[in-house]
Design a protein that fits this description.
It contains 17 helices and five strands. It has 370 residues and is α+β, with helices and mostly antiparallel strands. It folds into three domains: 115 residues, Beta Polymerase, domain 2 (2-Layer Sandwich); 116 residues, Four Helix Bundle (Hemerythrin (Met), subunit A) (Up-down Bundle), CATH 1.20.120; 123 residues. Helix 10 runs antiparallel to helix 11. It comes from Lederbergia galactosidilytica. This is Polymerase nucleotidyl transferase domain-containing protein.
Length: 370
């Protein structure tokens, strides 16, 4: 059995003698650190280069049938891992350091670990819920692939797609529960079983995905698993405490959007329905979403399916979209003018500062005070 730590010693000694300032960190993680290595286990080790020269220390090799991959992780990528923007957070959170260039490098690395633990705190919940939802979008793409394959969908390709769905479901549930996994490749399921938020029929669907020989059954299990996970995400998002804030969310919004409103007025006056069509829909939908953010403190879910529009409707803003009529753009123009008046009044009532001036001189006076 290869002494993998003797291999690591060779690399660390080389770094100390030949490029001590080019490598910031060397660490290892995985089975040897967790005490579950077998005779076929490799050593999962990595390094953070400090210079372009340091990156050249990357090497892949095999000793007595055991593969080794000494690979670089830049500081920027390590920061993404610590923010759970990359999935293998455990590399940073649970590694043992074999080499540290300086105390500054040690402090920077330990700061990343602090950031990882902070991701479990309540203020970061909505950020991770959004990540869970984004990952789930990949699952819906797989459902489309199932359907596009049609009668040509054979069992091997069906299992490829299903494996991708299962992997992304695991990732999504990790984000939803604000945790990261310490093991992968066959060990996600046992870690997910301990999570407080997971689909009730998770095990049933996973059994079908892994053991069924029916492409229809596998595809149906994937679809049900995706839908159940989506419901969990939407429920958790809707249960987040509202953080109402017009001043933070809508400062500068109206001044920028007024250009689109003017474009829409011009289109109505010139009878240009195509411009009116695209701009009216964009204006109304953008305003509905930003009002939702101002009231709730977060963007509507990707799979909100239009529920976010309720706030726009509650405030009585005109429905521009329903007024789209190529034979009568005057009614739309009237509604746009009404929306402008209502929006200005609404923002003023919420004490959102509006930079509206009647002349260049007024603007100059304002700008000189900035």
């Amino acid at each position: 059995m290869v002494n993998v730590f003797a291999v690591a010693d060779v690399i660390v000694k080389h770094i100390k003698h030949h490029c001590p300032q080019d490598i910031a960190i060397v660490g290892y993680y995985g089975s040897y650190l967790q005490g579950r290595a077998t005779e076929r286990s490799d050593l999962d080790f990595f390094f953070i280069p400090a210079t372009p020269r340091g990156r050249k220390m990357e090497v892949q090799f095999i000793i007595d049938g055991i593969s080794f991959d000494f690979y670089p992780i830049g500081w920027e990528r390590a920061e993404r891992m610590a923010a759970l923007d990359e999935w293998n957070t455990t590399i940073i959170a649970d590694c043992e350091l074999l080499y540290i260039r300086s105390e500054e490098d040690r402090a920077r690395f330990l700061k990343l670990r602090e950031n990882i633990h902070a991701m479990k705190e309540s203020p970061n919940a909505i950020k991770l819920i959004n990540k869970a939802e984004l990952v789930l979008c990949e699952c819906f793409l797989n459902l489309d692939k199932f359907r596009l394959a049609g009668d040509s969908l054979d069992l091997p390709y069906c299992r490829v797609l299903a494996q991708e769905v299962a992997g992304n479901i695991f990732k999504s549930l990790g984000f939803l529960n604000q945790i990261f996994y310490t093991r992968s490749w066959g060990y996600y399921r046992e870690q997910v079983s301990n999570l407080p938020l997971k689909p009730d029929k998770l095990d049933k669907h996973l059994d079908t995905i892994m053991f069924s020989h029916s492409t229809n059954e596998i595809m149906s299990a994937c679809e049900q698993l995706i839908i159940e996970t989506l419901h969990l995400i939407l429920e958790r998002k809707n249960n987040q405490k509202d953080m109402r804030s017009y001043k933070n969310c809508m400062k500068g919004y109206y001044e920028e959007e007024r250009g689109m409103l003017n474009k829409l007025l011009t289109a109505c006056e010139n009878g240009h329905y195509e411009t009116a069509y695209f701009v009216a829909i964009a204006v109304q939908d953008n305003l509905a979403k930003i009002l939702y953010v101002a009231e709730k403190g977060h963007w509507p879910a990707t799979f909100d399916l239009g529920k976010y529009r309720e706030i726009y409707q509650q405030f009585g803003y005109p429905d521009l979209i329903s007024l789209l009529d190529p034979t009568d753009l005057q009614s739309l123009k009237t509604a746009v003018l009404q929306l402008i008046e209502m929006l200005e009044s609404h923002l003023e009532s919420e004490e959102v500062p509006l930079n509206i001036f009647n002349s260049v001189e007024e603007f100059e006076t304002f700008y000189n005070r900035v």
